[in-house]
Design goal:
Number of strands: 4
Strand content: under 5%
Strand order of the largest sheet: 1-2
Distance between the termini: 92 Å
Order of helices and strands: HEHHEHHHHEHHHHHEH
Helix content: 55-70%
């Protein structure tokens, strides 16, 4: 038996293609690096770093979206080992192994298409990691030079350093997602980690904009700041619940709206549904998870959505009354409406792939919008937008 376990671990973790994977990721990262250098060749060094940070944020958002596509197309085990695919750096080298697995189980998780989806996700993740490594190195070099080469003091290097540390943790969760066979708690944490990565990069983008004078911190009243932070916390909690729904494949536990299974309070098993440390599709005791548990997972996410959308609507209304916060307020309102539309589409249209991926993207975009608002604001006295008087009243006056 010990020999069998060793073989299993060896099959799950095959580090032989790791160097080739890292080299390929570095080659992919050269494209955005070259684009930033060429596109901003006449800009200041600080401007180029800001552009690279913004591009890294954009590519990270794409990575989160592609991660959702990987999960929703059941491609997460398209290559059942890590970091490569059957010990190869690409599905091309693993063609024979993939064909054998597909022949043995035609409807299983391993097909040539799913293997490519999974490996492209890993390539993109590696290239984003390289870009964050470059940002960290540049930040520390700029700090050691006292900002002389950037013409202005750069942002604290600890922000990109924390981001680099976090992307390494994300890589570890990505590996566990595969080797622990889509363990729901691990996959959900991997999704949340992607949102945290977006927030970390967004803070740095705002800081660069403030250094260049493009963004001035906006004073918000204590009550509005409290509402903003509460909305942020509740959004993250709702994203975690959404990830738990997706990773347990509980979306179709309720296929009607606003009721579920024709009832306002369907049969639910909360204890079983929110038993976090268990494998996919089974309870901690190894029994198949009940439909009542899947219903509980779905319905809690739906009920929480009503509360979070109400909070976001209130936040958008309050922010819209602040002179300098009208643009983020409109983004929050529009993205909240998008989340409502895509969430309903997932239920009533039988979980269409486009709407499901867009729902994850909407959550990421909301995290960015709220992160931007937090980073671009400070406690203080709110300057409200002027409310124009009605025409008749002005004429009378």
């Amino acid at each position: 038996m010990p020999g069998s376990n060793a073989m299993t671990v060896q099959a799950l973790y095959d580090l032989s293609p790791l160097l080739r994977m890292m080299l390929f990721g570095a080659m992919l990262a050269l494209a955005p690096l070259a684009w930033v250098w060429f596109r901003h060749r006449r800009a200041s060094p600080l401007g180029r770093v800001q552009a690279l940070t913004m591009l890294t944020l954009f590519l990270t958002f794409d990575l989160v979206m592609f991660g959702a596509f990987t999960r929703l197309t059941d491609s997460g085990l398209g290559c059942p080992d890590w970091p490569g695919c059957y010990g190869s750096a690409s599905p091309l080298g693993a063609h024979a192994a993939i064909a054998a697995a597909q022949s043995a189980m035609p409807t299983g998780p391993v097909t040539s298409g799913k293997a490519w989806v999974e490996m492209i996700h890993r390539y993109l993740a590696t290239s984003v990691g390289v870009l964050i490594l470059v940002l960290t190195a540049v930040a520390w070099l700029g700090r050691s030079a006292g900002g002389r080469h950037m013409q202005v003091q750069p942002i604290s290097p600890w922000w990109p350093t924390l981001t680099l540390l976090w992307v390494c943790i994300q890589g570890a969760f990505g590996a566990l997602t595969v080797t622990m066979k889509l363990f729901p708690a691990i996959v959900t944490l991997h999704l949340l980690g992607g949102l945290v990565l977006l927030a970390l990069l967004c803070v740095q983008v705002v800081q660069f904009a403030q250094l260049e004078g493009k963004v001035t911190p906006v004073a918000l009243s204590p009550g509005l700041r409290w509402l903003l932070m509460l909305s942020f916390v509740m959004l993250v909690l709702q994203a975690a619940l959404g990830g738990w729904v997706s990773t347990n494949y509980a979306v179709l536990a309720c296929t009607d709206f606003p009721k579920c299974q024709g009832s306002w309070w369907p049969l639910m098993d909360f204890r079983e549904g929110f038993e976090f440390w268990r494998h996919l599709g089974v309870t901690g005791a190894g029994e198949y998870i009940s439909f009542a548990a899947l219903t509980a997972i779905h319905y809690v996410h739906r009920l929480m959505a009503f509360l979070v959308l109400a909070l976001l609507a209130l936040l958008a209304w309050r922010l819209n009354r602040v002179v300098a916060m009208q643009k983020p307020a409109r983004w929050i309102a529009a993205l909240s409406a998008l989340q409502l539309a895509t969430g309903l589409s997932n239920v009533v249209l039988d979980w269409p792939l486009f709407a499901a991926v867009l729902h994850t993207g909407g959550a990421g975009a909301l995290v960015l919008a709220l992160t931007w608002t937090v980073a671009a604001s400070r406690p203080g006295k709110t300057v409200k937008a002027a409310v124009p008087k009605p025409t008749a009243m002005r004429q009378t006056a």
